[in-house]
Amino acid sequence: MRDVQVLGAGLHRFGRFPDKSLQDLGREAISNALEDSGVPFKDIEVAYVGRVLAGMGAGLSVVSEMGQTGIPVINIEMACGSSTSAFREAYLSVSHGVYDTALVLGFEKMQRGMLQISEQTSYQSVMGLAVMPASYALQAQRYMADFGATPEMFAQVAVKSHRNGAMNPYAQYQKEVTLEEVMASRMIADPITLLQCSPTTDGAAAVIICAADKAAKYSARRSMTVAGWATGSGKFQSKDESEGDAETNSGEVERLSRQAYQRAGIGPEDVDVTQVHDAFSPGEIFVAEGLGLVGRGEGARAVWEGRTEIGGDIPINTDGGLISRGHPIGATGAAMVTEIFRQLTGEAGPRQVKDGEAKVGLIHNAGIGGVNILIFKR
Questions:
Q1: Could you confirm whether 327 is annotated as catalytic?
Q2: Which of 80, 162, 197, 364 is the catalytic position?
Q3: Quick check: is 374 in a domain?
Q4: Of 59, 69, 107, 274, which cross-links 204 as Cys (Cβ 3.0–4.6 Å)?
Q5: Coil, strand, or helix at residue 265?
């Protein structure tokens, strides 16, 4: 397998854009990524596209905005994990020599309101378990009972996320909030309040990858290398305590992170900056523990003590995460890659961690069909 590098990334700002089409969003993200990478569109050999709500063939209609060069355009749907799944497939095709260059694209335009994640007649829907904030809230209640965490500790995740988002010109919400404001916002599923929930969003994100032995032909100023990855869904266990929900339970994240760390030849102590799937504020805490960044039961206090801030020892979601940057489900994963790319290349501006010396970045992105973990090195 060949080494694979990320040469560039680009975004369309996340938010509400009723007057813009998917083509408008995607074209801007792709153009920004191509310019960032120095790779002309005519050299792109394949496109992998993450999208969920856009309908059949949406990837082709958006990529064709850049020109019809005859490349395959492969649509991938894995709910919130769609564009990291697209990234993984693009990486594998380039690393195995099928292609030298690839475009990874994610986009979405979303309606307001809560997403329906199960069939109306499913047992999850009938029992009320298909409501994602309720799933996170149940986990949070158990966590508070087990480890003595408080609702304020979960709310502090949102305070930190909005502070980071206020420094991100591409974020949907660019306004800081106080702990008091988070706690006073409308209750959604105890202890999760409105400001601890990721919004539905419009947006697009694009990433250009290339085989490392071919990258020198382009004018990219910098790059990062794909160092490790893992993907998988829930695993049945014939014992009393099962692995549980992929998004909120640490069991699956622990298993997959071990695989990713092994492939990358590192441990959690080597990670300088992390992007995690914080669809709701407790998710950041659960995943930080599952990834081994902190010990079991220590995640809430780590947030409370400032360890996950940009200036902390385990900075998480430096761009505002899903809660503040926004969560256009098809584009979320590629936006995570974009932020890690900015961090590892020292281009994150006021969000920059470790004085621009970060060398290892990790992404955790959950979807329906499994969790994707990606590790990058500068």
A1: yes
A2: 80
A3: no
A4: 107
A5: coil
